[in-house]
Design a protein that fits this description.
globular; about 0% strand; single chain; about 290 residues; mainly alpha
Length: about 290
């Protein structure tokens, strides 16, 4: 893979990781288009190309850490404080809250794993099937439109419970299917369940850390143990990682603004238009 392709894919990941329009589908569609032009890169459903996709996903975790640095710092500080209080058996209400949130986040990621591991091969096969992605993009657009017309949500940080954590974990598991946006689905399901917009966004992006890091580790092991040689260089992976991180910071600030203003419907128009383009292109053999 040429460096310019790594930069291009890093830009796409940085933008569409946070724009709720499915970064995996955009990466796969661009990879299919590049292959159609005769560019040299692995197949979108190959283990090493999926590893590249996950590496640029890790890059966007840096974006989350930068944009939510204050919230993350507070969360880590109060969680450690809660753990210390628990050991001393003198836990405050704040300490109990953040320990509970940590456990709920673990539950969400566990539910995601229960869905993702059994269906891993099925989900990965869709990377090479643009026509199926056009259908999942349409579903994403419908969900995004729906989030804008919801009345004000009432559930705050302290009211998040096991049921809501399971719902968000299911959404994240389903979003492993290309064309279904991870941020879009988790935020949408959280809003449908009554969670306020701010906490829906923060919970969604916070559980991205263990989910993406875990998936990257598993894919790295799969590539290392594969019999086929690794053709992607460390330089290519590093460039994609850095570009995704830098572009992602800008994209995330924009998405948060639109979410708080209930303007996700603008993304609906985009994914519906893209779904039509993908379906037509796939039908006529352009992808």
């Amino acid at each position: 893979m040429a460096i310019w392709i790594a930069i291009l894919l890093g830009i796409i990941q940085g933008i569409f990781m946070f724009f709720p329009v499915s970064s995996t589908s955009h990466l796969a569609l661009m990879q299919n288009w590049l292959l159609g032009r005769g560019e040299e890169l692995p197949s979108p459903d190959s283990p090493e190309m999926i590893l590249f996709d996950l590496v640029v996903h890790v890059g966007t975790l840096i974006s989350i850490a930068v944009v939510f640095r204050n919230s993350l710092g507070k969360y880590l500080s109060l969680t450690l404080r809660g753990a210390g209080e628990l050991l001393k058996r003198n836990q405050s209400n704040v300490g109990r809250l953040y320990i509970k949130l940590t456990l709920l986040g673990v539950l969400s990621v566990f539910i995601t794993g229960l869905i993702g591991f059994p269906l891993k091969e099925v989900f990965e096969s869709v990377f090479a099937q643009p026509f199926i992605m056009s259908a999942t993009l349409i579903i994403t657009g419908i969900l995004l439109w729906w989030t804008d017309i919801l009345p004000d949500r009432k559930i705050g940080l302290r009211q998040i419970g096991i049921g809501l954590a399971i719902i968000i974990g299911i959404a994240q598991g389903l979003a492993l299917l290309p064309g279904l946006s991870r941020s879009g689905l988790t935020i949408a399901f959280a809003l449908f369940a009554g969670l306020q917009r701010r906490w829906a966004a923060e919970y969604s992006f916070f559980i991205a850390f263990p989910t993406i890091l875990g998936a990257t580790l598993l894919q790295t092991i799969e590539v290392i143990t594969a019999t086929e040689p690794m053709t992607l260089s460390i330089t290519v992976l590093l460039v994609g990682f850095l570009v995704a991180a830098i572009v992602g910071i800008i994209a995330l600030y924009l998405v948060i603004t639109l979410l708080y203003q209930a303007k996700f419907r603008f993304f609906s128009y985009y994914v519906w238009a893209l779904a039509v383009v993908v379906a037509v292109s796939s039908w006529y053999g352009y992808m």
